[in-house]
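Exercise: predict the structure of this protein bound to NAP.
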Amino acid sequence: MLTGMQIAVLGGDARQLEIIRKLTELDAKISLVGFEQLDHAFTGATKEKLEDVDFSIMDAIILPVPGTNLQGEIDTIFSNEKICLTEDIVSQTPGHCTIYSGISNKYLDNVVNSTNRKLVQLFERDDVAIYNSIPTVEGTIMMAIQHTDFTIHGSSIVVLGLGRVGMSVARTFSNLGAKVKVGARKSEHLARITEMGLKAFHLDHLSKEVESCDICINTIPTSIIKANVIAKMPPHTLIIDLASKPGGTDFRFAEKRGIKALLAPGLPGIVAPKTAGQILANVLAQLLEEDIDSGKESLS
Ligand code: NAP
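Solution:
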């Protein structure tokens, strides 16, 4: 239980509602900033204006998945008001106050460093990334269906990268009956791909391996589907780039060659905001309970 814990939830989208639901169920007291257009009320959560929040009693601040932008502004779909996380706000919190975000950037890193607060980036955690790969794959299937005129079953699919997303993508498309090849650079990844019953190839041979590819799904967050690779693809190939912005594809060259290439960020929040929110809510609840337990231990 999170009884006695004070948490500020600043902005966000539908995923945040699952977090608020879970934390109020666990008896935390929540200040909601950037939710005034939300019709729903949660027992134990109060909608407040940023300037009215008493940050000196906060045990945790929860930011939306993207954190802040480079100016410190926080996105919220439930308000028209501008919310900005400043060094001044964070410095008002007690020293033990932890800031939770999906990812970080230079601005957020600077604020937590200069105020000496702890920042937890939920998307860096393996458990979150693996759970999150499930709605990501479902979104990828949706895109493959929407943007092709052939079935996934029987098609030749090249998956790039065998990380947390790549592994789920490769396995699921194979289970749907596609002929899946996976490109990686580490010998242990090549071994795992083979163990999974899929065709493994080294990324050095990428341009040769895409010659008969119907769909190429990239999960590698670096420039990988370069012009020389795109040049070898059949004209009907669909590229779905899942890697974080700017993706790993030469989109300019793909367009020039008439190959459809789609950058598809944030699929979990688009196709399954409720599940994506529950994934974050469950991990957050566990981390906040650990925070409470460690606080009790340090007092004993
Ligand atoms: P991950 O577990 O770190 O996997 C990344 C993969 O890329 C690994 O196989 C890694 O191989 C490979 N890689 C990285 N740099 C490389 C390089 N320079 N050359 C060759 N291979 C390289 O990451 P993940 O959790 O699977 O996420 C993959 C990407 O998808 C990230 O950009 C993430 O932000 C994004 N993502 C997007 C969505 C969406 O909705 N589109 C959802 C979730 C995640 P090594 O081990 O050899 O480095």
